[in-house]
From TrEMBL:
SMART domains: TPR. Keywords: TPR repeat. It comes from Aegilops tauschii subsp. strangulata. The keyword Nucleus does not apply. This is Uncharacterized protein.
């Protein structure tokens, strides 16, 4: 309504676009919402008063829309030509956002996350390190660098996660503790994994990834009832977490055979 009453009120148009992107990402539906969002962001760039509009923020908004378009299309195996076009748009706008303000750590962070989502892990590591160089106290950048290193099978990921943990507040630490737990689980250090994941759930009991991975620890230990309980909690917390649904079905089937 605000945008209808005053079409040239760019903050309202930006806010509308952000909400459209969030709705599309949550539903994983790349429909007209993202097209409209990208158009809104482009309008802010083209028609906004440069004395009022923060260009780096506007470019970042357009990059956010293009990145969501590519990631959702890739998740649902779209046509390769469409995927390539979406990827080119996303990379162009992400890099343009950095050019507008090369010292903005947030934009380097976003480019790192995008490369992680497209499995370009070595590039992701480089961009996340650039973000940390500009904002060394950002626990989220350290945590995501840990993920990128872990996915690259780099043993330094544990040290990076622990640095993120030192920088985090108590309310930020649950995701980092969960990531450390996942790392230990992958290395079959089940007791350590259980401790980290349990600590994560003490802080945020409804954190689905921690419940899902704690369930996998219990599977490895042959504790089927505990595993099923964890997977059920994960699905209840996030019914879009397909991994937890699959793990729950497998655990129920295996539990019946015991």
């Amino acid at each position: 309504q605000a945008a209808k009453f005053e079409p040239n009120h760019m903050p309202a148009r930006y806010a509308i676009a952000v909400h459209r992107i969030r709705d599309a990402v949550r539903s994983q539906c790349s429909d007209d919402q993202l097209i409209w969002a990208a158009n809104e962001m482009a309008t802010v760039l083209k028609e906004g008063d440069t004395s009022v509009v923060d260009l780096p923020v506007a470019w970042a908004g357009l990059a956010m829309a293009h990145r969501a378009q590519h990631e959702i299309a890739a998740a649902y195996d779209g046509e390769q030509a469409i995927l390539n076009e979406a990827e080119e748009r996303a990379l162009y706008t992400l890099k343009q956002a950095i050019q507008e303000d090369p010292d903005d750590a947030v934009q380097w962070h976003q480019l790192g996350l995008y490369n992680m989502c497209t499995t370009q892990f070595s590039r992701s590591v480089n961009f996340l390190k650039a973000a940390i160089a500009r904002s060394p106290e950002c626990c989220y950048a350290w945590s995501n660098l840990g993920i990128a290193l872990q996915l690259s099978n780099d043993p330094s990921s544990e040290t990076v996660y622990k640095r993120a943990l030192v920088l985090s507040s108590s309310q930020q630490s649950y995701a980092i503790l969960s990531n450390i737990g996942i790392l230990y689980r992958q290395h079959r250090l089940y007791e350590l994994a259980r401790k980290m994941l349990s600590r994560s759930l003490e802080i945020c009991p409804g954190y689905a990834p921690a419940n899902n991975n704690l369930g996998l620890v219990f599977v490895a230990e042959g504790r089927w009832e505990d595993a099923v309980s964890c997977f059920e909690k994960a699905v209840k917390s996030d019914d879009l977490l397909d991994a937890a649904k699959s793990n729950l079905a497998k655990a129920l089937a295996l539990a019946k055979k015991q």
